[in-house]
Amino acid sequence: MDTDHWLVFTGSTFNVSESSQVYEFYIVPRFQTTIVNMQRDLHRTSSQLNTVLQLIAETLKHLLERPNLNTFNASADCGNGTVGVSSVADQLRTELSRNKFDDRGYLSTGHFDITVSDAEGARHSGHWNISAGLTMSTELRRKFSPELLVANKSLIVGTEEAPPFTVLENNTWKGFCVDMLEELSLRMGFKYEIRRSVDNLWGAPNEDGSWNGLVGMAVRGEIDMAIGPISVTAERETAVDFTKPFMESAAGLLMMRFEDTTAKMFRTLMPFTVNVWLTLAGLVILIGLVFGLINKFSPIQATPDEKHPDRWIESMWDSFWVVLGSFMEQGAERFPHSIAGRVVLGLWWVFNILTAASYTASLAAFLTINMADIPINSISDLAQQSHILPLIKNGSNLYTLFQNAETPIQKKIYEMIQQAPIVLGNDNGMELVMSGPYALLTDREQLDLLAKVDCKNLVQAEEHFNNNGLGFFVREGSPILETLSNNIIKLMEAGLIHKWRRKWWSSTDVCSEEVAMTSVQSLKLDSTAGLFILYAVSTVLAFIILMGERAVNKLWPLCKAVVASRRTVEV
């Protein structure tokens, strides 16, 4: 390979500390310059120091062995005058012995000068030290600009299908993130080839410490970057470098709507709870008793009325019948003759009007509106029951979150995940949700689109969790990270992110609030069967009472005759 530029590091001391970054520039084929981040936690062990020393020596050796490299002298501020390039590595070893270490064993001093050599000669173009970091001249920045490194290059981009972020149709990728990638390629001047994840996973650590999914492909050098709804996590940051987030997201739950079929036939009684019904029954008895006592002990007695002999309330049974008739909104056949009794009855009428209005309004809602009953509103609700099992795609951020659970709720969720079927994708998860007692857990943006499959029967939990940012990632130490992040920010400032969001999450693609919450339906027999059952029970009870009355009616005269005959005998 032929090139006209290369760099040499010279310095008074060599230093790599916990908070510092040392950059090595070297030329690789296709004129691609790689900036390698050599930040390491180096202790006083000779093996670690020798590793760094060997890396620098091998780099300089690679340059010195080039056939088109001319020998020259590079200035090194070592106090020993000018040294040759061939002795730079030896000089570095010498200078390492003069380094200072802190109490923890870290190197604490150091400075490097950057020298550029080309056909015009060698010249100082920058420096690096612990306090100021890397400083480069305008010329050097221009030569090694990340924009130039990626221009006219072909990048291998990895992804996995996750509508509407990434959609694969007829072997062609499209979607929200693909639109972003296309715009970035136009702005940065690179070409790209999209490859799907080899194991259909986004990336999670394996038991042996390696990575699967797209993260593993980046670590192995199989892809240059990855796109999609990739959650930015601290664990993934140890293996790859993330761009600035292009969207804030949170996780949610999607499940089938809940319908309580256990008491469906008695839905006509559901407007009031059992406690309310028992309270009303007790109130009828209490008011009947009070009403009867007032009429019995009132000094105002009824006057004889030959035309209406049954108009006035005379017995306790009459009082109970009037109170019950008023409660059922029936007209009263008898009236209290006292003012106190009429006050009690009047207030009872007002109470019954309000009670009947409340019952009627609630009954209409229960019978004609299919309420969006949500059995689970949060992961806490999910953990506190055992009927509905969570579904989470393997290799996802959520799977890792619950796998490394730190709270009792998260640990319980992970135990439930082990009992549920393995989910390889959203399509697989939706099939399970539609056919069984499962709840799919994934990004809220994906759930909005998945819910449209059946807006009337699918519902999302109201509470979201695991708020984080979504971003792309590149290989660790990639020189295009900064310019890629800057261009993503420019897309956001230009309103393109909002434009693509409206495109892929249009109003026709998600369930409207009206459809999602309610749907009017005709009444069916199973919803009104309770009325028929109550009437049938009351009819049977009436016949039983009738049989008792007939028996008493026949036996009572006989009993009276027997009693009378005994009295006659005794006399």
Automatic annotation (TrEMBL):
Q: Per the database record, which ranges form the Ionotropic glutamate receptor C-terminal domain?
A: 154-507
Q: Where is this site: Crucial to convey clamshell closure to channel opening?
A: 376
Locate the residues binding L-glutamate: 229, 231, 236, 443
Disulphide bond pairs? 455-511
One GO MF annotation is: ligand-gated monoatomic ion channel activity
The protein's predominant localisation is membrane
- What would be one Pfam family of this protein? Lig_chan
Q: Name one GO cellular component term.
A: plasma membrane
Would I find Transmembrane among this entry's keywords?
yes
Marked site: Interaction with the cone snail toxin Con-ikot-ikot: 490
All residue ranges annotated as the Ionotropic glutamate receptor L-glutamate and glycine-binding domain in the record: 164-220
- Tell me the compartments it is located in: Cell membrane
**Residue stretches spanning the membrane:** 274-294, 346-369, 529-548
User: What InterPro entries does this protein's entry cite?
Assistant: Glu/Gly-bd, Iono_Glu_rcpt_met, Ionotropic_Glu_rcpt, Iontro_rcpt_C
Q: What does the record say about its membrane topology?
A: Multi-pass membrane protein
**Record keyword Membrane present:** yes
> Superkingdom of this entry's organism?
Eukaryota
Keyword list (alphabetical) reads: Cell membrane, Disulfide bond, Glycoprotein, Ion channel, Ion transport, Ligand-gated ion channel, Membrane, Receptor, Transmembrane, Transmembrane helix, Transport
Protein name per Swiss-Prot or TrEMBL: Uncharacterized protein
